[in-house]
């Protein structure tokens, strides 16, 4: 007998996964979780507080309770579950910025055009009614989208950075350079853990906008210089370079090779190191990383360009740039991230 989706719950979840996304999207847009806060509220009280239609809201709240975002304490009365607290901004372990990004039209609007991207090799966003809506963003301007991306990267890096700090010995170094480090949460974590280090944060002018605040909050602003520049042209001198979630932005190996060559040329000594923190795919799909990492890679086809690379591909690129590679698995890190330590030959 042929199995249908009702006999394969995981397949069913894949087929209707978009419904969960839009349910959470409406929840965030209506600020329902913020309105509930630490209280137990009735659907009626919440409807009045959020100017929503009580019967419809009740159905949404019950769906959220079934998904363990809320708990229904008694009929018609709800409070936040631990999962729901993760969707609040500023909560410990919060994924609010990731959720806000994922439910925004800029994230999902081009996915229905993926088939055309596969046929042509172009980005799916080029086939939407708003062509190039991602690439046409003026990143130098203060926009809701740019602010969302900045907050997302800060939030995500603050999860990864402590894992790197605990996994790698920065003791032998004196100057750490974070290339493409944005607002600086990665270098801030490294400097905070190693008082002997001084740092240089390099990114475009619009990229470092929040860096003074992030560095000050970490107590390292006096040991970290903020520079604006283009890492395709030149890099500051240093003896250890940080590069997190940068290389995947360029699908062309030639562009990645330029970044790696500049790192090699700028290293102050032959004992310098380049630390790449990237989502790295195994040579074959072997179950060693979560399936959604591969889906994230396809997401780059939809919107942002770029691509994830396999371990052999990274070895080849780094070898061509004059490095040997040691891969440090990061079991505690989410999303298939690895630490690649590159040493000059």
From TrEMBL:
<dbReference type="InterPro" id="IPR016461">
    <property type="entry name" value="COMT-like"/>
</dbReference>
<dbReference type="InterPro" id="IPR012967">
    <property type="entry name" value="COMT_dimerisation"/>
</dbReference>
<keyword id="KW-0808">Transferase</keyword>
<dbReference type="InterPro" id="IPR036388">
    <property type="entry name" value="WH-like_DNA-bd_sf"/>
</dbReference>
<dbReference type="InterPro" id="IPR029063">
    <property type="entry name" value="SAM-dependent_MTases_sf"/>
</dbReference>
<dbReference type="Pfam" id="PF08100">
    <property type="entry name" value="Dimerisation"/>
</dbReference>
<keyword id="KW-0489">Methyltransferase</keyword>
<dbReference type="Pfam" id="PF00891">
    <property type="entry name" value="Methyltransf_2"/>
</dbReference>
<dbReference type="GO" id="GO:0008171">
    <property type="term" value="F:O-methyltransferase activity"/>
</dbReference>
<feature type="domain" description="O-methyltransferase C-terminal">
    <location>
        <begin position="111"/>
        <end position="323"/>
    </location>
</feature>
<dbReference type="GO" id="GO:0046983">
    <property type="term" value="F:protein dimerization activity"/>
</dbReference>
<feature type="domain" description="O-methyltransferase dimerisation">
    <location>
        <begin position="13"/>
        <end position="88"/>
    </location>
</feature>
<dbReference type="InterPro" id="IPR001077">
    <property type="entry name" value="COMT_C"/>
</dbReference>
<dbReference type="InterPro" id="IPR036390">
    <property type="entry name" value="WH_DNA-bd_sf"/>
</dbReference>
<dbReference type="GO" id="GO:0032259">
    <property type="term" value="P:methylation"/>
</dbReference>
<keyword id="KW-0949">S-adenosyl-L-methionine</keyword>
<protein>
    <submittedName>
        <fullName>Methyltransferase</fullName>
    </submittedName>
</protein>
């Amino acid at each position: 007998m042929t199995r249908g989706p009702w006999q394969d719950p995981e397949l069913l979840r894949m087929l209707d996964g978009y419904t969960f996304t839009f349910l959470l999207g409406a929840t965030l847009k209506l600020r329902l979780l913020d309105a509930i806060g630490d209280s137990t509220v009735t659907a009626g009280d919440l409807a009045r507080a959020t100017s929503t239609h009580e019967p419809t809201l009740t159905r949404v709240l019950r769906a959220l309770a079934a998904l363990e975002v809320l708990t229904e304490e008694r009929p018609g009365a709800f409070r936040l579950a631990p999962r729901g607290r993760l969707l609040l901004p500023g909560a410990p372990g919060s994924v609010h910025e990731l959720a806000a990004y994922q439910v925004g039209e800029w994230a999902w609007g081009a996915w229905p055009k993926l088939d055309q991207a596969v046929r042509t090799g172009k980005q799916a966003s080029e086939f939407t009614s708003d062509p190039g809506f991602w690439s046409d963003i003026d990143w130098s301007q203060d926009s809701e989208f740019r602010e969302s991306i900045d907050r997302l990267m800060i939030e995500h890096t603050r999860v990864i950075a402590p894992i790197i700090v605990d996994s790698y010995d920065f003791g032998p170094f004196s100057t750490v350079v974070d290339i493409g480090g944005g607002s600086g949460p990665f270098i801030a974590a490294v400097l905070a853990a190693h008082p002997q280090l001084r740092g240089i944060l390099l990114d475009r002018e619009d990229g470092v906008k929040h860096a003074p605040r992030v560095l000050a909050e970490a107590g390292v602003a006096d040991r970290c210089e903020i520079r604006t520049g283009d890492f395709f042209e030149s890099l500051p001198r240093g003896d250890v370079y940080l590069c997190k979630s940068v290389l995947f932005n360029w699908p062309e190996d030639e562009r990645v090779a330029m970044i790696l060559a500049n790192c090699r040329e700028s290293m102050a000594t032959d004992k310098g190191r380049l630390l790449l923190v990237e989502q790295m795919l195994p040579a074959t799909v072997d179950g060693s990383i979560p399936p959604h990492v591969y889906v994230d890679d396809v997401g780059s086809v939809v919107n942002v360009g770029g691509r994830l690379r396999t371990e052999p591909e990274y070895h080849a690129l780094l070898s061509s740039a004059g490095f040997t590679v040691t891969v440090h698995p990061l079991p505690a890190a989410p999303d298939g991230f690895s630490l690649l330590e590159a040493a000059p030959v």
